[in-house]
Amino acid sequence: MSGSPSSEPAPATVADGSADAAKGARRRGLPTRWLLAIGLASHLVFQLAPAYQSVTTGPHARDYASYHYAVKAAARGLDPYDPQQLDALARAERTRKTVQPYFYPPPFLLGMSWALPLSLRQAYLAMLALNELALAGVLAACVRWFRMPVWCVALVLLAYTPLPDNATMGQANLLVLLPALAGAGMLLAQASSPRRDALGGGLLGLAAMLKMSPALLLGWVALRGRWRAVGAAIVTAIVLTLLSLPLVGAHDQVRFVTEVLPGFASGSYHGLTIPLSLPSNHSIPDLWNRLWPSPSRTRLSDAAQWASRLTTMGLLGAWGWAYVRAAHPAWLGRFGRAGVSAHDGGNDGRGEALRRGRQPSPPHESREGADTDVLAVAALLVIMVVVPAYTYEHHLVFLVPTVGAAASLVGRGRRWALAFAVLFFFLAWPLAWLRAAQDAVPTVLAPLVRESKFLAAMGFSGMCLVALAQGAPTNRTGPLADGPARA
Question: pTM here?
Answer without folding.
Answer: 0.85
